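Sanity check. The docking grid for 6-O-phosphono-beta-D-fructofuranose depends on where the pocket ends up, so I'm generating a full predicted complex first rather than guessing from homology. Inputs follow.
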Amino acid sequence: MTNLPPDPTDPTGTPAWAALSAHLEELADQGVDLRSWFAAEPGRAADLTFQAADLRVDLSKNLVLPQTLAHLTDLAEQIGLAGRIEAMFAGQHINVTEDRAVLHTALRRPPGAARLIVDGQDVGAAVAAELDKFCDFAERVRSGALTGSTGRAFDTVVNIGIGGSDLGPAMAYQALTEYHGPIRARFVSNVDPSDVASTLAELDPETTLFIVASKTFGTLETLTNARLARSWLLELLGARGAITSADDAADAVARHFVAVSTAKDRVAQFGIDPANAFGFWDWVGGRYSVDSAIGTVLAVALGPTVFRDFLSGFAALDAHFRTTPFGRNVPVLMGLINIWYVDFWDAHAHAVLPYSQYLARFPAYLQQLTMESNGKSVRWDGSPVTTSTGEVFWGEPGTNGQHAFYQLLHQGTELVPADFIAFANPQAPLADGGQDVHELLLANFIAQTSALAFGKTAAEVRAEGTAEALVPARVFTGNRPSTSIMAPALTPATLGQLIALYEHITFVQGAVWGIDSFDQWGVELGKVLAGQVTPALAGDESALTRLDASAQAMIKYYLATRRRPSGRSAR
Ligand code: F6P
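Predicted complex below; grid placement will be based on this.
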């Protein structure tokens, strides 16, 4: 192991942790009441609203007082957050269990940034060269200079990948719907064969380009779907008389398939010419890779200019995170407030509620980012964590969620901190009669945070003439925390800012907990066991007997129930 960070500081042993515990007791004695806090401090909203690049972030509806934030920023100092931030940006091997640097921030460094040499590699030069390479490829696809094997221009690009090789690009493609052009993007991720089948059913092989995106190029789902796509392409082109020889087939694969991976040897084994592969590096985690060549699908479908604007948004947030004092540093404050809820308020879920339909996949994207990063029980030195860690992130766009699960947010027994995200300018400026419809959306965005924070007392319910028996059911306790984020518009740059904001929030929480937020060993066991189950599902008796009783019973039921066309086996 090289270039290692110091052992984690146990946060519970710091003076700040003790101060936070005492502070919580004081708050419990005094009563936590956002109504009275706002009444007592007219400047509260302004004092607790911060700017990070284009994001206006209002923290005032959180269960914090100025002294809470002071204790939390003390905690950040005492666990050495500043050093850890610098260690990341400088390329130290803070991914300890994989002995790797963590340098997704190097993917979006602004032009003219100082040289960054890590492990003997000029990282800035390598990133710039690869970015130019896949942007140039995207430009040639978009201009029609590159065509399919029958000479027709591409009209569809299909990204085949999963996890970090799917969620970021798929989320961003939908978020940037306004920037869609003549080449549409489709995404195949699941090994459920209905995913690839339903996607391919609507496509023309002559005009379809496949990007096989996999950091490791060893992921079962992706390689299976890539082989299925290759068979589909060759079969349909063959049926049209466009393939009559092995050379034609190889030419078709070369023209219709490219790869994005850190493992170019495996790309070649699959049959894709390494010259048609775009690379990145082991210091880019899968869930942190949307701004690497994993974004090639975005560069093709949205254009290199949009992609570079997207990167500029990340860079703006990186600069804010790296240089802003903790007391005004938005990702630091949001990460610390999350610590406050998880470890002091026993809150283990966190809702993310974009008031933008185009951000529908943002919560799913954040689930991988946050939960694969911080869903850990040991620290980076192998010792057990000393606190609760990674909360469950979930959410849906507002207003849809309001008619589904907000009941629990308002009146349930769980405390669920929520992030509300909205944009001042609409994607689709429509009026219903004289009513600007975006204003209806924003009215709900604002009203919900007020309802959560300030609730409705029994006296207020009674004053509405409510029958006494119904009063308890109609009371809203309030004091349910939320953060409100607003940006001028959902643009490539603001999307990059939002993603980077949550990357850094995740980093801050991991740093306090002493977690290696950049490994993901917890996904491995299931993969290995699936490999052992597969032969049993195909009828291998000895494989079946090695499985647990529950698994055996399920497989026997499956084998007895699976219908197959007569005379055909599964294969
Ligand atoms: O299994 C989890 C995981 O390793 C994620 O961390 C990753 O984003 C995803 O699988 C896909 O991996 P790859 O890009 O190597 O195919």
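Relevant for the grid: The radius of gyration is 26 Å.
Also worth noting: The pocket of 6-O-phosphono-beta-D-fructofuranose is lined by residues 162-165, 214-216, 219, 222, 286-287, 372, 520, 523 (CB under 6 Å).
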